[in-house]
Write a structure and sequence with these properties.
Elements (H helix, E strand, L loop, with lengths): L1 H15 L9 H18 L8 H18 L6
Helix pairs in contact: 2-3
């Protein structure tokens, strides 16, 4: 059954990979922040929204980048 899940992910991932990634540069970080802003506009505070978990994941990716690359935010 795990192979079916991997196959589904393989089919779904290519278009998503342009939007969801670990940012390594400031440009990638800025694009991810912009994507998060769009998700926030769509999801708001609706934890039951289908994109709520995606919004959380993107937020974690941004937070990780900030911890590693933005010294004034890392306290």
């Amino acid at each position: 059954m795990q192979t079916i899940e991997v196959d589904k992910a393989l089919n779904a991932w290519p278009p998503m990979a342009r939007m969801i990634y670990v940012p390594h540069t400031e440009e990638e970080y800025e694009r991810l922040v912009s994507f998060l802003d769009s998700l926030i506009d769509e999801v708001g505070e609706d934890e039951a929204h289908p994109l709520a978990s995606l919004m959380e994941i993107v937020g974690v990716l941004i937070e990780r980048y900030e911890e590693e690359h933005v010294p004034e935010l890392a306290k």
